[in-house]
Amino acid sequence: GGEVTTLPCLVEEFDGGAMVVWRGGDGEGLESFFGTITHFDGDSAEVEQCRALQAEMVEDPSVPLPAEEPAPDAEPDGEIPGVPVRDFAFGADHLRLTNENREQPFSTRYSELAIEVFDLSTVLEDGKPYRLDATGEEGGKLHWEGTLSIPDARSEGLLVLTDISLRTAWRFLEPWVQFELHQGSLDVSGDYTLAWGEDLDYQISDGEARIKNLDITAKEPAAIPDTGLAWQTLSFSEVAVDGAEQHVSITDISLQGLAVQGWMEDDRISLADIFAAGDEVADDPAEAGPSQQEPVSEEATWTAEVGAVRLEQGQVDWRSPFTDPPSLQVR
After folding, report:
1. Could you give the C-alpha distances from 6 to 3, 23, 66, in angstroms and in order?
2. Total-model pTM
């Protein structure tokens, strides 16, 4: 429609009086903006005059009423609401996680859990430094510090795992594997960048990883006897991972104190049996049936580059019908 005409005056009542504002004044300060401001301590004809003018404008259909203020735009569906948090800290002496919905219940705990977050926000686009520290049930430690931007769907920082017990992971997987992990720990450190917007993208640089004091045997030695795998330290140095290029580069891989024990009979290889998942182990090779080759994927494959591989202080005890003598010992 046409041009919207505003009301010529406004009446604001209060205890013991009223205030009338006439629009279009030439005064100073508030009067230059609103118009003439008149105060009354009681009843006044000027108040009645203003109300009468307002009534005439409402009753006259030829006079458009003042436009309503537009409602604030609602947040589009699917967008993250703005939630700023200046300082967030969480700590716990012990935190236990339990899963009873399994044939064999699983439970683990974390101690000395400490989380510190400053300027956490879903509004700011720049990530802010965060920090997370936790201690596992057998003394392993987790440390993370970095930035996290929810609007940009991006994070980068440093992750350090120290002396993380692998038995915790084995206890979780135990119903589905054929081996028993007696001991073993994991150290990991590295810088990373991670983006999860339209496409998942990630990079790891200056990575280091060590698996220490590993000791694995068959979970049921009667079914898979004389089989085991152990080592002192397996180290990966200067690891870099590029998710976009699907490429991994490792400057050095070293293995110290390797000990392998196993055997081969007919089509069975004992080491392969203990790492088979679930009930894949067949007592009779004929029960396994013919092997079926998996179709080759046409998707891009990962590539790897390794600078050097070193083996120090290893030993192998192996039994096979294809050697004479059948039992071999390599030191």
Report:
1. 10, 9, 5
2. 0.61
